């Protein structure tokens, strides 16, 4: 058992190195371009704004938590941030329905099918999905396969959740780093979709994968903290956990 735990720690350490290398050492090209011409493209600006927002959310949450001697402020800051992107994702479905209705009318009633409907459909669907996964975790609505979870007490559930989240964290870090490389390669060659006559650049859509996993990473850290607070019998966290687990 100790040998398996040691291998897991070694695996997690290598993932942390991969994450650090991907995000902080191999990204010079992207951030150099943005620094030289920050307003040349709205897409590069949105990438920077996302990372800035995520960093400020964590920083403000940590500072407020230290100042108030309560980690609840960090929890609320992160959950508000993930909830904001879930709201954007929800509106993405509205835009998707509008695009599909326009395509049907244009194709079958006007005899003029669009060139962009297919591309817009999978991009909006994928973006809405990625923006919603962290909020889905926040609301505990991911599919759970269990044998006795619903029949045990709150603290036992928190132990089970804590164990699962601690295993999940290195996997999310690995996916974040891998998806960042996936995005960065598309950005460097200005990759096009190749899926239609419209043929738009694809790297802005690929960055939504990074956004979704970064949001999921932030939310998972918060879920770990909430589990620990329940185990420490923090009353405010217990009330919040009972609301989400029932």
Written description of the protein model:
The structure is a single chain. The chain has one domain (41-138, 152-245). It has 246 residues and is mainly α. It has helices at 2-24, 28-36, 42-68, 72-109, 117-138, 154-188, 203-231, 235-245. The model has no long low-confidence stretch (mean pLDDT 85).
List keywords for this structure.
0% strand; globular; single chain; mainly alpha; 79% helix
Largest sheet: none
Radius of gyration: 21 Å
Q: How would you state the average pLDDT, rounded?
A: 85
Given as residue ranges, the uncertain stretches (5+ residues, pLDDT < 50) are none
How many strands appear in the DSSP assignment? 0
Domain module tally: 1
Order of helices and strands: HHHHHHHH
Task: State the separation between the terminal residues, measured CA to CA.
Answer: 34 Å
The class by helix and strand makeup works out as mainly alpha
Instruction: Count every helix, treating DSSP H or I runs of 4 or more residues as helices.
Output: 8
Measured by DSSP, the beta-strand proportion falls in: under 5%
The 3D shape can be described as: globular
**What is the helix content?**
over 70%
């Amino acid at each position: 058992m100790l040998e398996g735990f040691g291998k897991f720690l070694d695996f997690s350490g290598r993932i942390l190195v991969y994450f650090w290398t991907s995000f902080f050492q191999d990204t010079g090209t992207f951030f150099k371009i943005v620094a030289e011409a920050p307003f040349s493209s709205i897409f590069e600006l949105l990438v920077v704004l996302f990372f800035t927002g995520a960093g400020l959310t964590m920083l403000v949450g940590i500072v407020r938590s230290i100042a108030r001697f309560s980690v609840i402020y960090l929890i609320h800051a992160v959950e508000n941030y993930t909830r904001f992107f879930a709201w954007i994702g929800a509106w993405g479905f509205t835009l998707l329905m509008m695009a599909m209705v326009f395509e049907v009318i244009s194709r079958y009633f006007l005899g003029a099918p669009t060139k962009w409907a297919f591309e817009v459909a999978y991009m909006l669907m994928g973006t809405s999905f990625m923006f919603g996964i962290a909020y889905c975790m926040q609301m505990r609505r991911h599919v759970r396969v269990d044998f006795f979870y619903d029949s045990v007490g709150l603290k036992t559930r928190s132990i089970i959740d804590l164990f699962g989240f601690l295993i999940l964290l290195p996997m999310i870090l690995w996916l974040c780093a891998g998806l960042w490389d996936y995005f960065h390669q598309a950005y460097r060659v200005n990759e096009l979709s190749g899926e239609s006559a419209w043929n738009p650049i694809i790297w802005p859509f690929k960055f939504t994968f990074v956004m979704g996993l970064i949001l999921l990473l932030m939310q998972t850290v918060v879920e770990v903290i909430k589990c620990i607070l329940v185990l420490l019998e923090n009353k405010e966290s217990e009330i919040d956990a009972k609301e989400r687990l029932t």
